[in-house]
Amino acid sequence: MESLQPISGPWALIAMSLKVTIIFGVLVLVVAYSTLAERRVSAWIQDRRGPNRVGPFGLLQPVADGIKNLLKEETLPATASKAFFVLAPMFVLVPSLMTFAVIPIAAPLPTPAGIVDMIIADVPIGILYVLAFSSLAVYGVVLGGWASNNKYAFLGGLRASAQMVSYEVALGLSLITVLMMSGNVTLTEVVWQQQQLGMWFAFPLSLAFILFVISAFAETNRLPFDMPEAESELVTGYHTEYSAMKFSAFMISEFGHMVTASALMATLFLGGWDLPGTWDDAFWHEGQLIRGFTQDGVIVLANPAWWKTVLTFGGFAIKTSFFMLLYIWIRWTLPRFRYDQVMALGWKVMLPTALAYAMLIGGTILVLDEVGIRWGFSYGLALTAVSGVATAGFVFFLDRGRTIIGAAGQSRQKVSITGISQPATAGD
Amino acid sequence: MIEVLFYVFAAVALGGALGVVWAKSPVGSLLYMVATLASLACIFVLLEAHFLAAIQVIVYAGAIMVLFLFVIMLLNLGHDYQRDLKGGAFSLLSFVIIGLMAGVLVRQFGENAITEPTAGGRAIDAALAQHGAVGAIAQPLYTTYVVPFEITGVLLLVAIVGALVLAKKGGR
């Protein structure tokens, strides 16, 4: 039996450098392959083949793309402001790769020298760190658009700044319910409280989950929210003037944002690395790694093992990949919003809903605590019921009888107007 | 290590502050300002005020400065910028202000510099241990100082309403 102490001394330094190297390397690799995944999935959705020439199943395509981008000519528009033009891709790349540092990726790993937490930096401000860096990412996009001295790029940058500021509000407000549930902002504690509750926050906070996913799509500038680079209106928006590796930096950071946002959604709402059951639970409580408490509040010590770390990392990877797939799937399914629709959705729907929902969940938590229900499965069930009603109301309101009542109702309408193909009611 | 980092971030903060004044284009000024705010946040982290650091970045660097950037770009400032704030009187005024600040700092830290943790510092440590990084600020804010806090909120609301009224008047 190894000691259940956190790793310390020179071994901690070695463990930390290994963690930083491995996690960062894997992150960059995942980003590279998600570009391939996007092209293959889009091909699959559109009944094409996609890139399949370079290596088996096209697996070396990201390498070929990388070489191509390195060897291409770097252009610098004559009227661009040089310093900002060069700085912008860096400003957008660094925050997108740095946010991953605070996300726990697996159960703690026991080594002969002590226990290693599977997180680069367990900072006491957790989620706020992520918000801070994602709010800095907008500078790169805006500056890139402005420095290019090109009207399309400029409009893209303007749109990016307005859109990101608008949706950050809804993002933050939907996070408040998660913080109320977990009682702390560190992501390890968010995972731990989901383990204690016996269910992932996606169920008791279903509406916050939906709002967060929508806001995260807007924050990452992905379709249907890719107004800053809407190619049918703005050429390619803020990176119109960029070529070669600078353009590639914008692409890498877009996918880096997607991976981080996916990992964040998995951590906040799908339990992070948690797998069903209490066998894998682990949390540092007053210097001890515990699995939970008995009915009388006695500490049950955790029993970390390397296979638990591997299994939980697998769980985390699957959840994150699910959200990555969702990103790609939605991109090739939904058409783009109009810009005024994006703004109306952000300020007139998302913000009031998130605010009202935070009040609702706060009130429910207050009532449940007053009644004296213990933090556990029945607590979660009560919140799930309340949230379910709120979510149903929200979806019904947003849908306005278009999708839920279904195509059947619309096709009946069309039949009554015989002969003339009427455009659907989409524009109003 | 912490001392070295402090001097690095302090140098960046001061350099950024000088850059705000010296930069030719408003966008350059704004970026220097962001650099200053970010390195101040780093200094807050060195002081173990993690929450303040996060709020500094989220609110100032992430929201307010983005709005500034938005306005600068929307009004298309900065292409033929006039040096209207750099006259002789202003530089004289700035030297006077710098001198006064330096005097205050020397008076405060020159002779009786604080080396031991004070009672206030120990209270902050205790609050951090008990409530966590966010709770240490939220607890007094929403209990002891709830009335000033709410009054500040009302003040901001009044300012927003006032700005809206002014904007509406101008539009007619």
TrEMBL record, chain B:
Pfam families: Oxidored_q3 (PF00499). GO terms for molecular function: NADH dehydrogenase (ubiquinone) activity. InterPro entries: NADH_UbQ/plastoQ_OxRdtase_su6, Nuo/plastoQ_OxRdtase_6_NuoJ. The chain crosses the membrane at residues 6-23, 30-47, 53-75, 87-106, 145-167. Keywords: Membrane, Transmembrane, Transmembrane helix. The keyword Transmembrane helix applies. Gene3D superfamilies: NADH-ubiquinone/plastoquinone oxidoreductase chain 6, subunit NuoJ (1.20.120.1200). PANTHER family: NADH-UBIQUINONE OXIDOREDUCTASE CHAIN 6. This is NADH-quinone oxidoreductase subunit J.
